[in-house]
């Protein structure tokens, strides 16, 4: 089972430029969480802070009792063994074939024999559907295959936390759909904590258990998927439903004139909440909640047509 990430009052600046401040949330153990936000809001900076590549100006990131913002380099090295990271472009070594790329963390961080390494590498390549491609170089395969190879490498140390930095960037909608299904299937199999940074709204609406939104140098909201997909908070509603009307503009925040011009415009109605993507075998993940459960528990009426039109699931009727 994955481990919880407790983030408290986290702030990060580069020089005089505040990236985000007072970020507080708990990423639940074993669940899939997505972090959204307009371009330039520091989503990737947040991931780098969580693994200690960047030090925050204030606040704490506590994992299994260790605050990685203040711990020693030795303790940070040990905590990092809990992590697997899928970088935006796969970050593969171009001169190594896929097998050696995936084997690299095992050779660097363990004393396993080459025969043990081979068993693990082939197991992970099988998990991501790359058996038979282990002798290929990164330059000889598609972007989608490089993403899957990067994911196999992120999994070889059996991490309890897996971070995905825009896994869908550069992929067409079909490959993104396949990758999303793979992420859901992997979470069901390894039960690790997944945190995904993405711009893809369909991914955010169908894959995670929880959604967060960074906006205007702070965390606008973080919570269960249904909470955000039924939210009337303008910035959350605008972003999650890809609407033009709302506080977000081309330069992140609309100016006073833009807001004044649209003050009499009503925001479009909330679209239906889709069913959450399930594992391929049809067996719900441990953390997966029945459709409409959060809405029922909190007395929220979901938008018409939610959950494939089965409103009895959302209302208990």
From TrEMBL:
Listed name of the protein: ABC transporter ATP-binding protein
Domain ABC transporter intervals: 5-241
Keywords: ATP-binding, Nucleotide-binding, Transport
Gene Ontology molecular function: any one: ATP binding
Residues passing through the membrane, by range: none
Source superkingdom: Bacteria
Gene3D superfamilies in the cross-refs: P-loop containing nucleotide triphosphate hydrolases (3.40.50.300)
Species assigned in the record: Nocardioides mangrovi
Location of region: Disordered: 255-317
């Amino acid at each position: 089972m994955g481990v919880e990430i407790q983030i408290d009052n986290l702030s990060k600046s580069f020089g005089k430029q505040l990236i985000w401040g007072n970020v507080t949330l708990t990423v639940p153990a074993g669940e899939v969480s997505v972090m959204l936000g307009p371009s330039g809001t520091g989503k990737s900076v947040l991931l780098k802070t969580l693994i200690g590549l960047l030090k925050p100006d204030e606040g704490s990131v506590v994992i299994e009792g260790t605050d990685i913002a203040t711990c020693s380099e030795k303790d940070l090295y040990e905590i990092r063994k809990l992590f697997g990271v899928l970088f935006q472009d796969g970050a593969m070594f171009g001169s190594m074939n896929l097998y050696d790329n995936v084997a690299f963390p095992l050779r660097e961080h363990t004393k396993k024999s080459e025969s043990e390494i081979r068993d693990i590498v082939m197991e992970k390549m099988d998990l991501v559907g790359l058996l038979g491609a282990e002798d290929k170089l990164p330059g000889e395969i598609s972007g989608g295959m490089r993403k899957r190879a990067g994911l196999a490498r992120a999994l070889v140390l059996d991490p309890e936390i897996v971070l995905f930095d825009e896994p869908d960037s550069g992929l067409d909608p079909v490959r993104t759909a396949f990758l999303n299904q793979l992420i859901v299937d992997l979470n069901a199999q390894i039960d690790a904590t997944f945190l995904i940074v993405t711009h893809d709204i369909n991914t955010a609406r169908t894959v995670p258990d929880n959604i967060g939104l960074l906006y205007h140098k702070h965390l606008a909201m973080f919570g269960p998927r249904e909470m955000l997909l039924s939210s009337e908070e303008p910035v959350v509603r605008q972003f999650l439903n890809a609407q033009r009307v709302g506080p977000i503009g081309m330069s992140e925040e609309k100016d006073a004139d833009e807001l004044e011009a649209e003050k009499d415009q009503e925001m479009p109605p909330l679209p239906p909440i889709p069913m959450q993507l399930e594992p391929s075998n049809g067996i719900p993940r441990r953390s997966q909640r029945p459709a409409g459960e959060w809405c029922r528990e909190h007395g929220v009426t979901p938008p018409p047509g939610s959950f494939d039109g089965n409103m009895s699931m959302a209302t208990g009727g």
